[in-house]
Design brief:
Alpha-Beta Plaits, 98 residues, globular, UPF0045 protein, MTH1187/YkoF-like, alpha+beta, Thiamine_BP, 3 helices
Length: 98
């Protein structure tokens, strides 16, 4: 499965980079395939691998704020591995072919 999620601390002002970095550190330390962009961090693995990482990322942000907002989108597709790369490669192939 691929889970795209964002964890936003509330009540600490506009600059949330330090708190978000704490969450991304947790994801990267997990060893699971992941990718971070301006809006979400995506992580790939089995349900029982991914969900504890997301929970730990939320807890890391809570160290900076008593209140957080979390958005999670999950693509749970049996038999698919390397989806983070394969999905983007498919779109790039279609773009290259016009």
């Amino acid at each position: 499965m691929i889970a795209a999620f964002s964890v936003t601390p509330l009540g600490i002002g506009e600059d949330v980079g330090e708190a978000v970095a704490a969450a991304v550190r947790v994801v990267r330390a997990s060893g699971l395939p992941n990718r971070t962009d301006a809006m979400f961090t995506s992580i790939e693995g089995e349900w029982d691998e991914v969900m504890p990482v997301i929970r730990a990322a939320i807890e890391a942000v809570k160290a900076h704020s008593n209140r957080v907002s979390t958005v999670i989108k999950i693509d749970d597709r049996a038999g698919v591995t390397d989806g983070l790369t394969a999905k983007v490669a498919s779109v790039e192939r279609h773009l290259a072919n016009g």
